[in-house]
Amino acid sequence: MRSQDVRTSKCAVPSRDPGRQGFKRLGLSLAIWLALPGLASAEEAAQAVLQSTPVSAKPAAAPAQPVETVTEELIRLLADRFALSQEDANRLIKRLRDEQVQAAAKADTSPAALAAAQPPAVEPKGRVRIVYLPETEKKRIREEVREEVIAQAKAENWAQPYTLPGWVKNVQIDGDVRLRGEFDYLDPSNSPQFINFQSINSGLPLNTNPPVGQPLSFPVINSTEDRQQPRVRARLGILANVSDNLSGAVRVTTGNTSNPVSPNQTLGNDFNKFSLVIDRAYFNYRPSKDLSLWGGRIPSPWLSTELVWDEDLGFDGLAGQYRHAWTDTLSQVITAGVFSVENTDFNYPATSLQKGNSRDKWLLGVQTGAEWKLSDRTLLKGALAFYDYVDIEGELSKPCYAPSTNVSCDSDASRPLFVQKGNTLFALRDLVVLTPSDPTYQYFGLASEFRLLDINARLDRSFQDGKHLVVDLDGVYNFGYDAGEIRKRIPVNNFGSCPADDPGCSPPFDGGNYGFLVNVLWGVPKIVDRGQWNVFFGYRRLESDAVLDAFTDSDFHLGGTNAKGFHLGGGWGIARNAWLSARWLSATEVTGAPYSVDVLQLDLNSRF
């Protein structure tokens, strides 16, 4: 067959003298066979002669190269990009090829396979031995090498050389910036005589008996002139996961240390820099999936509205919260906390050799709430809370002779260090007057006790287009309020009007102890993306001593209690995590001297 193939080859060269040419070809073939050992057989030499091509001129076949696998390509790419040294790359490729040979031997125990597993014999030049490896073994080897490379990359951090250290992954940073234009429109018919008790209690006492011929001068709140206030709020928080069940957080914000419910910084202070204060500093410990414990200056742990707690208020103390899901549709949350409202100054009184007793003020709170999934699109939340303020009310001093502002009386520490406006106040000092011209320097304290029962609920109904209908209800009642006891303390504000037929009477005390709020929102509750929007409308009434005026909403009625009215507004997303919002708040007094104010707020908000 072999001689026949030669005779019938299309590449054979025809000759006019077959006999002579045949002898020449036979002799040339023997010469080539003896001179060129690189040819595999005499057949190759004979074929070269038949094609009339000198064997020495025919290009030598290039040694067959092994096919590069995906894993080898990955290793080479890592080396090319300097994520892996060339030495390590060569070592891994050699190991890969050695394991391919060993794997083939394991998969096939035939004599041929065992022979293939042995070190390859030296092949003649120009000949390459290729070992066959089943596809399953190739896949297994690729996976093993890939896992080894990835493990080494993670351990040595050379696969991602520009990434941050591992501890940074346990830290979360967030914040927000808000630019606000606020326009306060005050009714010119408001009473001009609203004493600024915050200014008095945070500074020197007020002399209520000025020298003869001098009018009584005391700080007052602006109640008649409109104002425009450009403002900014900036906050930056850091949350670090210390361990699997312990985290710590710190947040700084604009604002000051004298107003706990407003982080706003008013622009226009001769281009002076803003102040930054620590707004949050706490630990959160989670001993189980249902229980969380906080300690430090923490965010509000309560389910509530701004009827009782302003949204910017922080709490100083300890709190615990237990959450449990009873079913797939019903869960319960129980929260309890102990918070330090005021701590007596260590050197109180600062100007006296006789130091006063400690009079610390505390807030004790407990709340139980539930979430009930009425349907796939309807969620109902509700909470019942009781808040008890300990030693928050003022205390009348013992008889005290205070002819100057440097003299302290024993009840001065019972005055509130921060008030907005609305709560009923009385004079704290029982001053001794030796002569009619003696000055009477006075501080003022809360006339009512505060033990609050708060009930609030939220109904959230979502729709297919992503919109929500959210209804919030909140009601609060102060069980510590006693109108008779307040009258005995001789209050200095919150008076009713005299009858029309007796205009010269002494106006009677006319405070109150309950409040409620209704709010309806339509749209997206929390705007995140461009084009999302919401609108809302609400009404509230908050009597003078329903809650502590220091910690309720700081915007409605420009802060405090003894207010009623409505609010409306909306928001529109202009970019991812950026939106515009507007609010109109219209409020007037519940009782006492007239004080009506409308507030317009235009905000540009962003979060990150």
Give the structural class: alpha+beta
Report Rg.
44 Å
Q: So what's the CATH class of the largest domain?
A: Mainly Beta
Mean pLDDT: 85
Number of discrete helical segments: 9
- In CATH terms, what is the architecture of the largest domain? Beta Barrel
Specify the overall morphology. Answer: elongated
Q: Share of helix among residues? A: 10-25%
What does the model show?
The chain has 608 residues and is α+β, with helices and mostly antiparallel strands. Helices cover 17% and strands 34% of the residues. It has helices at residues 2-7, 18-35, 42-50, 70-80, 86-107, 111-117, 135-156, 197-201, 483-488; strands at 171-186, 206-207, 227-241, 246-254, 265-266, 276-285, 291-298, 315-325, 330-342, 361-375, 378-390, 399-400, 425-427, 430-431, 441-442, 444-446, 451-462, 468-478, 514-523, 533-542, 563-575, 578-589, 597-607. Helix 2 (18-35) packs across helix 3, helix 5 (86-107) packs antiparallel against helix 6 (111-117) and helix 5 runs antiparallel to helix 7. It is elongated, with a radius of gyration of 44 Å. Residues 1-64 have low confidence and may be disordered.
